[in-house]
């Protein structure tokens, strides 16, 4: 979404500065990734091929979708120099993999062999099972005389009758042309995470010409490949490969297991069931384009194959649920494939009645039922929901042309108010404490979730059925950039939003970075971490354009068990209460 109108243990208690060089395994690959320029399509493909200049495994390794006893492992093989991502060329490969209980691989606990070829762009995905819960592991791949970088990962803290620590980073909106991936470097430096939750817009579809998106100063340095908007399967594969050359992103994948879900830009902006705002007739059949995007996503991302946890659905099932012992569940929803087309917020000077039409849906009805049943039936203290677009009601700030009750953005849950109300009612009926984790809007939020969002009533009763935390973007333009680069305008806009929507307890529209959510039986806390250049989070300079930027703590908010409300600000998170086996 483009915002409308607007390891080694590292002490993270202070601002950290991790050199880009320290996160590389193969310095040449990192230097090459930083040197990408504006290229022809042929040169672009040659450049991404050079992503393998660090060897057969030049696009790194990754793990994902952790359970108590299994992990998904990923890599991409370049079997011969001509087997460029997206080219459809190159011989097949037999790839050996190992999982060990130590970084030196003296205690290998699982091993196996997989095959890959051009039909899946030479990517490899395997499931290592039979593992021990809440345990750290190391993994690697071998083929054609080459050995991959070593990845570190861990199984889920999911042991019946035992309560372990739970701490996740959550991120979204990582536009390559928008800046350096300093936020990923900050995540890679941490030794206290169980997983990274990526909530969508892992990559962007735009090209380098009129549709370029990001700081002008990075043109020629952080350019998209292919240089035009991605439309075909070859385009999507090549764009995924480009992102996987980034050294900071590689490091974050190498250090932690990821749980990922797409939003719109993995296909194209503001997608819905039968089209998208950014799909034009000359770009061909939308369904062919979407199928290509989904195929490349499944090939290049550390996500299990669809339907891994079968449930009634429409189309391809990407939604799934993760268990964390007796502490919490995490339901990851997918809200693009089957959503009804977006509608205007007003019609004829009045609030558009279609916004509340029960025939219009964000997730398909089967998925919404899966989600609401999971919340109603849960007996655990917390139920986390990994979600793409803002869930809380967000009314537009009163001004000329804004009618009473007009919502800010109909691409969010506000555009599908019957589904929104159904989920709020399920939250109110359940005994678990719902916590929605959201991306998309390129800013940082902590929201109460009133059942009936009315400013006067909310201020009188402070009634809420759950909470929502929204992470900042990794690099994509936020309030400040959307308001002409004015920090003062961004502050004024966020203040006005909070005045109009008092259930927004915290809102910051300047910083870029990531969030960390920590769960105990007593409370859920979210810490916001912003990238900084010379100590500036973006008030006077743009830290996205500084390759030497660092990450630093900004603010923390929490929800105490039983309150279903946001409280804070509070102090920064301290050490975990326990650590995985082998850590």
Secondary-structure blueprint:
Elements: H1 27-34, H2 41-49, E1 61-64, E2 71-76, E3 93-100, E4 108-116, E5 123-128, E6 136-143, E7 146-147, E8 151-154, E9 166-171, H3 182-188, E10 195-198, H4 233-244, H5 247-255, E11 257-260, E12 271-272, E13 275-276, H6 286-300, E14 320-324, E15 328-332, E16 346-347, E17 350-351, H7 365-377, E18 382-387, H8 417-429, E19 433-438, E20 444-448, H9 455-461, E21 467-470, H10 479-482, H11 487-500, E22 504-508, E23 513-519, E24 523-532, E25 550-560
Parallel strand pairs: 1-11, 9-10, 10-11, 15-18, 18-19, 19-21
Antiparallel strand pairs: 1-2, 2-5, 3-4, 3-6, 6-7, 6-8, 9-23, 12-13, 14-15, 16-17, 20-21, 20-22, 23-24, 24-25
Helix pairs in contact: 3-5, 4-6, 7-8
What are the defining features of this structure?
single chain, 583 residues, alpha+beta, Purple Acid Phosphatase, chain A, domain 2, 9-stranded mixed beta sheet, 7-stranded mixed beta sheet, 25 strands, globular
């Amino acid at each position: 979404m483009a915002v409308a109108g607007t390891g080694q243990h590292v002490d993270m208690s202070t601002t950290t500065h991790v050199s880009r060089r320290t996160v590389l395994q193969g310095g040449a690959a990192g230097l090459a990734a930083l040197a990408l320029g504006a290229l022809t399509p042929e040169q672009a493909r040659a450049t991404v091929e050079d992503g393998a200049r660090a060897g057969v495994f030049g696009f790194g390794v990754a793990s994902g979708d952790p359970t108590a006893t299994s992990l998904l492992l990923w890599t991409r093989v370049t079997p011969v120099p001509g087997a460029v991502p997206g080219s459809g060329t190159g011989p097949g490969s037999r790839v050996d993999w190992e999982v060990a209980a130590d970084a030196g691989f003296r205690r290998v606990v699982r091993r196996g062999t997989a095959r890959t070829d051009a039909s899946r762009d030479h990517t490899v995905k395997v499931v290592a099972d039979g593992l021990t819960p809440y345990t750290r592991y190391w993994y690697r791949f071998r083929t054609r005389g080459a050995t991959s970088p070593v990845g570190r990962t861990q199984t889920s803290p999911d042991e019946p009758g035992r309560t372990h620590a739970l701490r996740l980073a959550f991120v979204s909106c990582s536009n390559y042309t928008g800046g350096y991936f300093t936020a990923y470097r900050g995540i890679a430096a941490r030794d206290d995470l169980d997983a990274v939750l990526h909530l969508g817009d892992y990559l962007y579809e735009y090209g380098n010409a009129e549709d370029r998106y990001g700081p002008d100063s990075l043109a020629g340095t952080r350019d998209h490949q292919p240089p035009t908007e991605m439309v075909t399967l070859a385009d999507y594969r090549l764009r995924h490969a480009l992102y996987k050359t980034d050294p900071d992103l590689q490091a974050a994948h190498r250090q932690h297991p990821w749980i990922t879900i797409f939003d719109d830009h993995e296909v194209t902006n503001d997608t819905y069931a039968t089209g998208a705002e950014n799909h034009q007739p000359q770009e061909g059949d939308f369904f062919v384009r979407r199928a290509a995007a989904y195929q490349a996503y499944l090939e290049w991302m550390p996500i299990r194959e669809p339907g891994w946890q079968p449930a009634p659905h429409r189309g391809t099932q990407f939604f799934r649920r993760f268990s964390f012992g007796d502490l919490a569940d995490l339901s990851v929803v997918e809200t693009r494939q089957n959503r009804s087309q977006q509608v205007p917020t007003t019609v004829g000077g009045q609030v558009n009645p279609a916004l509340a039409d029960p025939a219009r849906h964000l997730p398909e009805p089967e998925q919404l039922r899966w989600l609401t049943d999971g919340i109603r039936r849960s007996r655990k203290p917390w139920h986390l929901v990994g979600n793409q677009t803002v869930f809380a009601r967000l009314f537009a700030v009163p001004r000329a042309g804004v009618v009473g009750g007009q919502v800010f953005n109909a691409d969010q849950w506000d555009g599908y108010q019957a589904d929104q109300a159904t989920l709020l009612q399920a939250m109110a009926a359940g005994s678990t404490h719902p916590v929605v984790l959201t991306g998309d809007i390129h800013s940082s939020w902590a929201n109460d979730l009133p059942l009936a969002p009315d400013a006067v009533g909310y201020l009188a009763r402070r009634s809420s059925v759950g909470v929502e935390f929204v992470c900042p973007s990794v690099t994509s333009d936020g309030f400040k950039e959307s308001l002409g680069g004015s920090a003062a305008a961004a502050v004024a806009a966020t203040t006005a939003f909070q005045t109009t929507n008092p259930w927004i307890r915290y809102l910051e529209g300047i910083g870029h970075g990531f969030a960390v959510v920590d769960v105990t039986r007593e409370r859920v806390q979210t810490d916001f971490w912003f990238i900084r250049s010379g100590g500036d989070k973006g008030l006077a300079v743009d830290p996205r354009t500084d390759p030497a930027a660092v990450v630093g703590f900004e603010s923390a908010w929490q929800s105490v068990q039983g309150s279903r409300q946001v409280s804070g600000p509070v102090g920064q998170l301290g050490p975990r209460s326990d650590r995985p086996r082998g850590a």
